[in-house]
């Protein structure tokens, strides 16, 4: 198997190291793992692409490249340039430092990398490790993802619906709970939730030179997120698997409004 991996925490992030191990296990002795990851951290960039300026790429070592761009840029670089001779069988994005459940999905560069892979016609999976008190005490806070990752990915490759050939293909969002690998209670397939009362905001700060700066701040990750959701699965120490596609249409509202507004 030929696998392309990327992330949004940057080329030197420990989560990318964990993902490289997962990918190597999946690829097998005769397979290939290629890394194309951002040269610098790109958390929160979503599905951004560097449309208005070029992206500098550099080979750091065999099959390991850094790009001065977003995770989606990295996937495009991998598919369109570095691996243009033969496309990969799988794109993996992560393992993110922190969860990408609930409202976090809309901002996540990790999700953006997997989404771009799916749009390019390659099976794609985003992986994130929820961090909290249960992982802070571990020597390796990514051990849940590291030890359970290949099993979950294999199950998705063998059994998931990939909707290949449709206008908007499926990809998968996998979150590992904030606990040790031994404390993981299993896997749940869940819809995306939304944490109650949680959103991003700004905090103002005046620098010593008198200039005013705004810091983007997130809300509590411990808030409940709806019964049966990805948020609640993680709070119960389950791995959350959420099928997604890059289609933001609300179809129920589309049908209702069409009955009232469509003309001619």
UniProtKB/TrEMBL annotation:
Main location: cytoplasm
Alphabetical UniProt keywords: Cytoplasm, Hydrolase, Metal-binding, Nucleotide-binding
Domain Survival protein SurE-like phosphatase/nucleotidase: 3-196
SUPFAM superfamilies: SurE-like
Key word RNA-binding present: no
GO molecular function: 3'-nucleotidase activity; 5'-nucleotidase activity; exopolyphosphatase activity; metal ion binding; nucleotide binding
Taxonomic superkingdom: Bacteria
Binding of a divalent metal cation, residues: 8-9, 43, 96
Subcellular location: Cytoplasm
Entry EC no(s): 3.1.3.5
Bound cofactor: record note: Binds 1 divalent metal cation per subunit.
Co-factor requirement: a divalent metal cation
One family name in Pfam for this protein: SurE
GO cellular component: cytoplasm
Reactions that this protein is recorded to catalyse: a ribonucleoside 5'-phosphate + H2O = a ribonucleoside + phosphate
Stored InterPro entries: SurE (IPR030048), SurE-like_Pase/nucleotidase (IPR002828), SurE-like_sf (IPR036523)
Xref: HAMAP family: SurE
Task of the protein: Nucleotidase that shows phosphatase activity on nucleoside 5'-monophosphates.
Similarity annotation: Belongs to the SurE nucleotidase family.
Name of the molecule in the record: 5'-nucleotidase SurE
Organism: Paracoccus chinensis
